[in-house]
Amino acid sequence: MSKKIRLGMVGGGEGAFIGAVHRIASRIDDRYELIAGALSSDPERAARSAENLGIHSSRSYSTFTEMAIAEKQREDGIDAVSIVTPNHMHFPVAKAFLEQGIAVISDKPLTVSLEEALELEEIVKESGCFFAVTHNYTGYPLVRQAKHMVETGELGNIRLVQVEYVQDWLTVKEEDGGNKQAEWRTDPTRSGPGGCLGDIGTHAFNLARFISGLKVEEVSADLTSFLPGRQVDDNVHVMMRLEGQAKGMLWSSQVAPGNENNLKIRIYGDKGGLEWHQENPNKLIFSPFGEPSRTLTRAGHGLSDEANRLIRTPAGHPEGYLEGFANIYTDIADALLECQAGASPESVMKLIPDIEAGISGMKFINSVISSSQENGKWVKLDA
Amino acid sequence: MSKKIRLGMVGGGEGAFIGAVHRIASRIDDRYELIAGALSSDPERAARSAENLGIHSSRSYSTFTEMAIAEKQREDGIDAVSIVTPNHMHFPVAKAFLEQGIAVISDKPLTVSLEEALELEEIVKESGCFFAVTHNYTGYPLVRQAKHMVETGELGNIRLVQVEYVQDWLTVKEEDGGNKQAEWRTDPTRSGPGGCLGDIGTHAFNLARFISGLKVEEVSADLTSFLPGRQVDDNVHVMMRLEGQAKGMLWSSQVAPGNENNLKIRIYGDKGGLEWHQENPNKLIFSPFGEPSRTLTRAGHGLSDEANRLIRTPAGHPEGYLEGFANIYTDIADALLECQAGASPESVMKLIPDIEAGISGMKFINSVISSSQENGKWVKLDA
Amino acid sequence: MSKKIRLGMVGGGEGAFIGAVHRIASRIDDRYELIAGALSSDPERAARSAENLGIHSSRSYSTFTEMAIAEKQREDGIDAVSIVTPNHMHFPVAKAFLEQGIAVISDKPLTVSLEEALELEEIVKESGCFFAVTHNYTGYPLVRQAKHMVETGELGNIRLVQVEYVQDWLTVKEEDGGNKQAEWRTDPTRSGPGGCLGDIGTHAFNLARFISGLKVEEVSADLTSFLPGRQVDDNVHVMMRLEGQAKGMLWSSQVAPGNENNLKIRIYGDKGGLEWHQENPNKLIFSPFGEPSRTLTRAGHGLSDEANRLIRTPAGHPEGYLEGFANIYTDIADALLECQAGASPESVMKLIPDIEAGISGMKFINSVISSSQENGKWVKLDA
Amino acid sequence: MSKKIRLGMVGGGEGAFIGAVHRIASRIDDRYELIAGALSSDPERAARSAENLGIHSSRSYSTFTEMAIAEKQREDGIDAVSIVTPNHMHFPVAKAFLEQGIAVISDKPLTVSLEEALELEEIVKESGCFFAVTHNYTGYPLVRQAKHMVETGELGNIRLVQVEYVQDWLTVKEEDGGNKQAEWRTDPTRSGPGGCLGDIGTHAFNLARFISGLKVEEVSADLTSFLPGRQVDDNVHVMMRLEGQAKGMLWSSQVAPGNENNLKIRIYGDKGGLEWHQENPNKLIFSPFGEPSRTLTRAGHGLSDEANRLIRTPAGHPEGYLEGFANIYTDIADALLECQAGASPESVMKLIPDIEAGISGMKFINSVISSSQENGKWVKLDA
């Protein structure tokens, strides 16, 4: 059996959402043991949460700073920490652990400002530590397949990238009704200046970037906040110009009734097109120009090694969000072991979303906001 | 039996596409007889086409001017003419018939320039004639249902209009290979300055306008011509601002492999959302916020009178493009009879696409081109 | 222009359903003129219906016998008659016209008993007349494509045929509430002994027979009438054994809420499978064993000549039930012209559903009822 | 934190499929620790597999008998054993552990004969032990929702149950090519007399039984083995008569190209219908008679407490096969804790599939085989 990764967690206590997802993702392939945590800024909740998760009280910390220092000093200290706090805490927590030489697995977006993101990049470099950001949608096997098909030229030269991530839960003023998730996500001091943009728009951007392999060079954007008094955008309209003369559109919204987590991407080149939906992620439609469309299925016929590497069950047995997330975690476990065996962090990233991916996301947020503030002026970026 | 409408046709001879569609649409409900035509600018082809269509040789004309004059003079002259030529001929043909007092049913786009369109509007007014433009997608029963639901407030205040019309046939340089349809559609002297924009982008715009009931107030656009040497756009990216603070996006393309006639609209208000696809037009998804989505079906349960008026077969027996087109033609037949009985053309239009719809389309084309030429600057319009 | 077929109609007056469908189907390609009729057994309704349809009063008949004789004697008498009455009238009407040497286009099922059907076969043979039965679902282009793929071996040896035709409108006792369609369809004296079985089960059977090219050799059936007092079956369960060791199941029901006209067929051989749904008939899923499934589309890439022959609009513009029905009518028009030019009726049938198809349907009904009456005993047939 | 269940496993070593699934299912909610195993009948493979799974060598056993005895004697012995062997080993292994008073979680089918199954039932009763059989499809939240809707009368009286489970992997003679999964599944000495019937037909039966709440009273069946030399059925056709005058059909096949794990159920009552597909399990279509169909989604609006209890992620984030399986395991963990606290096994089963479910499956297999051997004669059962 491979050595298990000793994992700590910051955030993710009672009432949180994404922390539980990270924990399940880390368990699915049995590569981690969760042994330490600063699960909440509320000490009582932190302790109670730790107990419920089977974390020994001696390793349940009141603050992340304390945890970073204490874990560093232990012989059996954690190998890595998962950061699953609201956005504004990503940076300070990551900094604290990196400075102790502890590997970091951070939720997205990377930080709440590009400045912080670039500073974090420096800290990562100086630390020599492994750092990953959980752009989890890249962990779906058929997303890997799509990327592979673009790379191997099955679509020809890419011309168009149409991506959207649409929800409906903020159609009403959810943040006024005691919904904690809504509260911090619509509070710019905790979520950063982008609302919908930072929360799910970055996922859409990252997915487009990952599959197409193309940087976005310019954006023209129109951000809206439809609900009176809402402090952040809840709808994102972006036109994009990408490397190699490609064009694209990105739509992200949290006010479109009937959409749950409707993340969808379509990519077209001069030889073919691809279409993938997160809500039914076990299908990938491939349309070679001039031929009937083909439905590729997870674990089905005609897939690449990379797509086939990431499955646990036969074709037709749906794998979903948690398994895609687990693929990221499991690849990180392999990477961490390689680092412990002496490999450089850079050399083990392969397709794991890295700090560059995180910074690209922050540049995207920044540029979209700038463009929207300047009434849609095309703003250049390198992301 | 209602008196049949005596119909003439300009364009639509051998090798044409849309002429045959108009003829089938006029026949489905048996309300027209096609008795005269100037079917081609090539006299031999015109004659041969007329013979094949059962038009008597005495009423097969070499030129539309000749036809307009001759038909006017006959006691049994045509009641209306269908114009199914390439775009640049819409204006002169319409003018010729209107000046003879003959009703006009014109294909879209209205003309090849806004100037012509406005001039045509004057001519229509002066003539006192009936004038319709065949924005046929508005004839689908579930499109009528969608419009009805917006009007009766089932979606609440409209916030978002996302529309797309996507094809793939111009992924390669089809116009260089002898494809007549591709040739004129990519030739700005015959199609007007908009390529994909005028050909199918206007349909998308018109559909959004029709269902939402909202004018577009501003557009920011990015037009592309992906194929080297192609003289018109083949991809259209537009951000829209609509009446009442609504926002939208329009994507139209003819270079997206795997898309045939993928016209799709999604509309969202503060109380619910709607989704409709032309390629499977017998379904309309309605998502009241906070409840499960419902699938409305053509001729199925819970539809408005207007949607139910336009059906010929029971639910589950698919009706398609030709029946939607026929709905427009049949409503026009009713309207023409009312005019003949003394009603004013304005009073009989109801939901028939009129010259205002045509002019709106031209304004949209114009503004999108202006915006794109000014690198996406927001351009105001009243359409 | 081809000579138009002079058409008469028996049945199809006010309040009827299928008559209007036949009329539209005959008009779509402009190959017929409807000039005579005995549209209702109620003389007033017959006359009024004729007037509404533009049939001259001199050719609106009170009885079909009178019509057959009178039309025979006219120089400009009808070329063919469409029979669109309730089932029990199919036989006597067909007989009357065939005996006058007039071609017959009959709705299905052929008759209300196998005895009648076999007698009709004799009459047809003796008459030397053209005779077709409108198993209209065989007119869909992608149904032709499916048949072609079976014939050319793309599925290999056929092993399985799974077919179903499911509706929901008789979930309640519709026939007690004044619904004329429900009344005669649940009245064995008018519909024949099969209820759902004769009404739509025969369509499912015919479709399976048409595409697979395989006769059904044995059936084991369980018929049910779920509504108390209903005189005919409203649910049909059949296991089938077909030629060449193939097996199959047929399910037909009129009491399955949520199903409108859900006719669906799946066929599997040792090399591949096919799936087609009537409610979205512009798609055909082809699954070659060991490869990704492909979605063939009407008028799209990779279709046979026969499938391509039957289209009017480009791919992505949905054609539906009426166009499929029109394909049958248009092929019949061609066939009738060939007959008039001296060809034998047998030589012109090609893929037009003929009396053999009708008799097969009757044998199927008969055998299914026998099997069900004998508690599911396997009953042999040659259909 | 709840006490973790100490789990052992028999079967599931290298090269096996379902063992890994059970392990992931047990890990997802972190309620088990796998600490003992007899993972293979090949001692070397057993040891190697144990090491890979982190099972201490002292608790990796060569035989299940040895394991049952040894674990019984340990103070820290396992609380339960998961049996994931080929079918013929289910009985002896279960017997061995039950006789030591150890709880059993067995894969399906229960045994390879009804005699064994009934004997096992006695053993379970005598042992007083907890016993579950992993009919995992009942763990999907929307399957629970469907059951709930049937129970609360939303469908009215059930009339029809149409279920199918279709695959394609045995379209060719896979068992001759070294595929271990195919080898034992087509070998009646290891899989039992039912091939496809026992492997997946029982899942379809169980799902129908679970959701409808109705026993099957009679079956008429036609089993086929399409491949020459194949020793078990690879296609299953069954007509069913259920409690309360309901009827149904079950189709199961492993030779239908294009089908991966196409388990699908449709249930109809006099007030509405339901439809659910395993391959996209996050949707449930509900069609109240006379109203538009509604799409219920996992974690979406309008679900029962039972369906909502079984989710980990928000609506629109697909959960799949492994999460459904995990729901069974997690409920079993709760049940085992209750037993350890003194509750009787019977009192804690709730919706966990129990030995009765397993015996029903065996009765179904038996009766279907009997019916098929008697050429489709209706065979009574009480299952």
Which structural class matches the secondary elements of chain A?
A: alpha/beta
Report helical residue fraction of chain A.
25-40%
Q: What gyration radius of chain A follows from the Cα positions, in whole Å?
A: 20 Å
Calculate the mean pLDDT score of chain A and round it. 97
In summary, what is this structure?
Four copies of one chain form a homotetramer. The first copy, chain A, has 383 residues and is an alpha/beta fold.
Overview of this structure, please?
Chains A, B, C, D: This is Putative dehydrogenase. Chains A, B, C, D: Pfam families: GFO_IDH_MocA, GFO_IDH_MocA_C3. Chains A, B, C, D: It comes from Cocleimonas flava. Chains A, B, C, D: One of its GO terms (molecular function) is nucleotide binding. The structure is a homotetramer. Helices cover about 35% and strands about 20% of the residues of chain A. In chain A, α1 (about 20-30) links the parallel β1 and β2 (about 30-40). Chain A is an alpha/beta fold. The mean pLDDT of chain A is about 95. Chain A has two domains: about 5-130, NAD(P)-binding Rossmann-like Domain (Rossmann fold, 3-Layer(aba) Sandwich), CATH 3.40.50.720; about 140-315 and about 360-380, Dihydrodipicolinate Reductase, domain 2 (2-Layer Sandwich). Chain A starts with a strand and ends with a strand. In chain A, the strands form two sheets. Chain A has a nine-stranded mixed beta sheet. The first copy, chain A, has a five-stranded parallel beta sheet with strand order 2-1-3-4-5, with helices on both faces. The longest helix of chain A is centred in the C-terminal third of the chain and has 20 residues, at about 320-340. Chains A and B meet through β6, β7, β8, β9 and β10 of A and β6, β7, β8, β9 and β10 of B.
